[in-house]
Design goal:
Rossmann fold, 8 helices
């Protein structure tokens, strides 16, 4: 059974954690006792609000800023988090952009932008964090995938490909990191009620409009966050290389 403070004394970095699922994950890990590095690229004010919320509840947090698609920036992100909080035990690769563009109109630059943030970002962050995760003795990497990586979706070839890539990366690293006591898992959220910004994501995904989970509601960011907390904690040390779906029964793996 998971205790209320099962992550006490551990340090986590959550990429893209100023809002929505990332924010919920940062708050959940902090509630469990972890010191949390809240990462943003541009949303400094929103990220600072998450840090303030954690600290107001008695937790320890720091804001780190940088582009996860930039190798030098990623090294600085991980170093800043580790220096401020005293190491790194948990990495959550959540940063993503989720645009909709018909494949015939999908420019290579947009393809690369999505790939760079979702898949390259997870590679870069995990590579930079690896020495500290290995020193942890109970390191955990949780990649945030997506339902469409398993069902497909029109107008989202770049997002689907990138998220599917995270599944493959999860499996490969779970095998490679096992002898360093690092677990690597992927959480694939389904239809989660998040505040999507039309300017950056195109608003509500078209494939959401015609579907409803069997449980009769969309998930909340906290539904995903609680699963991430479990995977990062001591009760999940025998669980690695898995993709776990949180979708209210919309897709049965």
């Amino acid at each position: 059974m998971t205790s209320d403070r099962d992550l006490e004394g551990r340090v986590a970095l959550v990429s893209g954690s100023s809002r929505n699922i990332g924010r919920a994950i940062a708050l959940e890990l902090a509630q469990a006792g972890a010191a949390v590095a809240v990462h943003v690229r541009d949303s400094v004010e929103a990220g600072a609000a998450v840090v303030a919320e954690i600290e107001a509840a008695g937790g320890k947090s720091v804001l780190v800023r940088g582009d996860v698609a930039d190798p030098q920036a990623v090294d600085a992100i991980v170093a800043a988090a580790s220096d401020a909080l005293g190491g790194l035990d948990i990495l959550v690769n959540n940063a993503a952009i989720r645009r909709e563009t018909a494949f015939a109109d999908l420019a290579y630059a947009e393809w690369r932008e999505v790939m760079a943030i979702i898949l390259d970002g997870a590679y870069l962050l995990t590579r930079a964090a690896l020495p500290m995760l290995a020193r942890s003795g109970a390191g955990a990497v949780v990649n945030i995938g997506g339902l469409s990586a398993h069902t497909g979706a029109a107008g989202r070839a770049h997002v689907v490909a990138a998220k599917a890539g995270l599944v493959g990366l999860t499996r490969a690293l779970a095998i490679e990191f096992a002898d360093r006591a690092i677990t690597v898992n992927c959480v694939a959220p389904g239809m989660i009620a998040t505040a999507r910004l039309a300017a950056t994501t195109g608003g509500e995904p078209a494939h959401h409009k015609d579907h409803q989970p069997p449980v009769g509601r969309r998930g909340q960011p906290e539904d995903v966050a609680r699963l991430v907390r479990y995977l990062a904690g001591p009760s999940a040390r025998y669980l690695t290389g898995q993709t776990i779906h949180a979708n209210g029964g919309l897709f049965l793996a």
